[in-house]
Design brief:
Blueprint: E1 5-11, H1 14-35, H2 43-48, H3 59-74, E2 82-83, E3 86-87, H4 90-106, E4 111-118, E5 121-126, E6 135-139, E7 147-152, E8 158-165, E9 186-193, H5 196-209, H6 211-219, E10 225-230, E11 235-237
Antiparallel strand pairs: 1-4, 2-3, 4-5, 5-8, 6-7, 8-9, 9-10, 10-11
Helix pairs in contact: 1-4, 4-5, 5-6
Length: 246
């Protein structure tokens, strides 16, 4: 998927956890093999070319396409699994795969806490230690090496943090209405939600909307908080974000 993944697993038998980690890594490689739009032999590429039907593909393909359709519906089209008129679910695959890997590791007997980071998008489950919450630093897109905020999962069993923006990968987010790069006043949107599958989608959609419409829309979503940073160094937050800072 063109990025680095890292795992932090607390508790559990070392040997059992190591086996589970190997399975999780293998699962992520399998996701790349199935969903990559850069591999001619991936199931998604073959689906686009009409060589396969959804029913011919791995069960995960139908699952991801259903999730993508739901994300498109809830965002009123601002999130899309189509690029240049072709099916491209990569906008949802990374968040979904990270969340799936984290939940598989959390199911290992004795494991008390899991953090899986896929290219800066993080799924947190459980706790890292007694009376210690997971904490995630959000990079400042305008000040390399600095932090814009620190998100705390205190009091929660699950929390995800996802950021979309131009700082790391340049202009890569597409405006679904035009099919061209999204040009807005934003440089970064960080979304905090229970599930990374959705947090990743919502960050992408809100970035494409721009700060005013994006903030209004994010405020309307249940269990979602967000931090938006504009090119003019203006910071906008949803009303409940303060409760998650720390």
């Amino acid at each position: 998927m063109g990025t680095v993944f890292s795992f932090d697993v607390r508790g559990g038998d070392t040997g059992v956890v190591q086996t589970a980690l190997e399975e999780a890594v293998a699962g992520l490689h399998r996701v790349d093999e199935v969903f990559s739009t850069y591999r001619d032999d991936s199931e998604i590429s073959r689906l686009v070319r009409g060589e396969l039907t959804v029913g011919d593909c791995a069960a995960e393909v139908a699952e991801v396409l259903d999730l993508g359709a739901e994300a498109e519906r809830l965002s009123e089209g601002w999130f899309s699994t189509t690029y240049e008129g072709r099916l491209d679910p990569t906008g949802i695959v990374k968040g979904w795969s990270v969340e799936r890997a984290a939940r598989a590791l959390a199911d290992v007997p004795g494991v008390t806490g899991v953090s899986v980071n896929g290219g800066g998008d993080v799924q947190l489950l459980g706790v890292p230690g007694p009376e210690r919450p997971w904490r995630v630093g959000v990079s400042d897109p305008l000040r390399p090496g600095g932090l814009a905020a620190v998100i705390s999962a205190a009091g929660l069993d699950e929390l995800a943090v996802a950021t979309s923006g131009t700082a790391e990968r340049g202009t890569h987010i597409v405006d679904p209405r035009t099919g061209r790069s999204a040009v807005t006043d934003l440089v970064a949107v960080t979304v905090v939600a229970p599930r990374l599958t959705w947090a990743d989608c919502w960050a992408t959609a809100a970035f494409a909307m721009g700060s005013r419409q994006g903030l209004r829309w994010l405020e309307s979503l249940p269990e979602v908080e967000a931090l938006l940073i504009t090119a003019g160094d203006e910071v906008r937050c949803t009303g409940g974000l303060a409760a998650r800072l720390g």
